[in-house]
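Input record, target 12 of the design panel.
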């Protein structure tokens, strides 16, 4: 089983990233929130879960250990497969998801595409007693304290697109393509932010 990959990000698509590890390209399915944190040319460490089915072998990836741990808990719930678990992690962070389960908040869980209210209630029923909120909150606090956030400037562009009515996932993808297609370096210089915004808007308008 492949539990972790460390390599160069070759490309990022709407729901996958291609990671080059020693000349071998691994296609990894990831949540939109994680895909928004990486870009082509970046070195990345991705924690992975290999799903083997009748039709395919699929790698699911996570930038944080907590996200992978949450994913593994979710797929243990009857009727919840890797695709739905990944959808949940694209909709809620592991901490938000844990609190939603603890608070019996099926409405918050059901916002994930492909889940539905019955699936949300099943997750709450089967996982509520197995999640220790105190440990999750402590781990998040410790991780936040040591993590060095890197503002690449792309977040500002994505927020601008969202304010214009575009979906976050579409905005993130357009910004990545705009940067790659026009050979713009990150972190973005101040003068590059409006340029990337114009390029991304042009891409999204063409995709309508």
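The sequence produced for target 12 reads:
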């Amino acid at each position: 089983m492949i539990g972790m990959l460390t390599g160069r990000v070759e490309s990022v698509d709407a729901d996958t990233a291609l990671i080059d590890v020693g000349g071998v390209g691994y296609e990894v399915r990831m949540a939109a929130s994680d895909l928004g944190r990486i870009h082509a040319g970046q070195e990345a460490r991705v924690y992975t879960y290999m799903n083997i089915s009748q039709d395919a072998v699929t790698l699911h990836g996570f930038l944080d250990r907590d996200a992978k741990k949450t994913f593994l808990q979710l797929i243990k719930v009857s009727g919840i497969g890797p695709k739905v678990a990944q959808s949940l992690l694209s909709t809620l962070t592991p901490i938000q998801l844990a609190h939603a389960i603890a608070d019996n908040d099926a409405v918050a869980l059901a916002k994930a595409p492909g889940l539905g209210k019955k699936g949300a209630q099943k997750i709450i029923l089967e996982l509520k007693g197995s999640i220790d909120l105190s440990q999750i909150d402590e781990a998040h606090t410790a991780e936040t304290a040591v993590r060095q956030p890197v503002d690449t400037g792309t977040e500002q562009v994505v927020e601008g697109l969202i304010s214009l009515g575009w979906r976050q996932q579409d905005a993130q993808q357009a910004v990545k393509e705009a940067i790659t297609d026009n050979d713009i370096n990150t972190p973005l210089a101040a003068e590059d932010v409006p340029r990337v915004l114009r390029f991304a808007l042009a891409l999204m308008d063409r995709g309508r």
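The chain is about 50% helix and 20% strand.
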